[in-house]
């Protein structure tokens, strides 16, 4: 799919109800975690941590933390011991994050205050990552995010849980909504509001269908990702690579990763 459209997503709108946004993020977290979407990029991230001598991953735009536990466990399987992950977002999800912290004995922690991914506070250290969210940023903002990482001298990895194919768009409007209706009662932590706005007033699934479809249409290609990286790093201070990693059961992850040159 070469088409890229700048359509809006509900979760980006400042006035969008927090309870609906949280319900959508809970679904995304459940699906990404259950499917192990980001497991294939663990070797890339492990290499980034080794090259930058860091043991902390700073996740930007973390949403509800979808897939973070899978990545953490996959990193340990790659031999990256004692790695910690700090979750941040412009719209923090403290309830979801507290649940993750409890399950991981505090190895995945969070920043309680809102964090702008384009200007990360100096006290938040670590190899920066952004999962399933880079497409939310128009080219100017996306470049600013990468430039901020270059300026800070820290590595950064951009990961999108799709390969940008038409089949993925078809799944987003057919199979995945059905899965959402079937699986919602099993999402944790439990929220009565999630059930109300899924089954009685189905705002969450309808907005999820729209945002999921638009996400694919807004995704950057690997060539576009490299162009953004070079625009953010005209002096060539970082080593950059972009590509796609395929999961063992079929789906792809599109990525851009960079770290300071020796």
From TrEMBL:
Domain of life of the organism encoding this protein: Bacteria
InterPro entries reported for this sequence: SAM-dependent_MTases_sf
Residues spanning the membrane: 199-217
UniProtKB keywords: Membrane, Transmembrane, Transmembrane helix
Keyword Transmembrane among record annotations: yes
Protein name: Class I SAM-dependent methyltransferase
């Amino acid at each position: 799919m070469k088409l890229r459209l700048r359509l809006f997503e509900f979760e980006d709108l400042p006035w969008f109800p927090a309870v609906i946004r949280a319900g959508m993020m809970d679904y995304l977290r459940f699906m990404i975690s259950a499917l192990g979407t980001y497991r294939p990029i663990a070797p890339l991230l492990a290499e980034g941590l080794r090259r930058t001598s860091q043991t902390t991953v700073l996740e930007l735009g973390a949403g509800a933390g979808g897939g973070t536990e899978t990545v953490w466990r996959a990193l340990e399987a790659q031999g990256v011991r004692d790695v910690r992950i700090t979750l941040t977002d412009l719209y923090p999800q403290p309830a979801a994050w507290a649940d993750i912290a409890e399950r991981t004995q505090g190895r995945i922690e969070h920043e309680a205050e809102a964090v702008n991914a384009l200007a990360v506070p100096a006290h938040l250290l670590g190899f920066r990552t952004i999962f399933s969210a880079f497409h939310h940023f128009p080219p100017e903002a996306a470049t600013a995010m990468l430039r901020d990482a270059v300026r800070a001298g820290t590595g950064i990895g951009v990961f999108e849980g799709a390969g940008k194919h038409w089949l993925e768009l078809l799944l987003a409007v057919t199979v995945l909504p059905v899965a959402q209706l079937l699986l919602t009662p099993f999402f944790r932590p439990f929220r009565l509001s999630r059930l109300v706005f899924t089954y009685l007033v189905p705002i969450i699934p309808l907005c999820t269908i729209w945002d999921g479809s638009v996400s694919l249409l807004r995704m950057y290609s690997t060539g576009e990702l490299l162009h953004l990286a070079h625009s953010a790093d005209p002096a060539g201070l970082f080593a950059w690579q972009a590509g796609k990693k395929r999961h063992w059961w079929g789906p792809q992850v599109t990525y851009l990763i960079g770290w300071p040159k020796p």
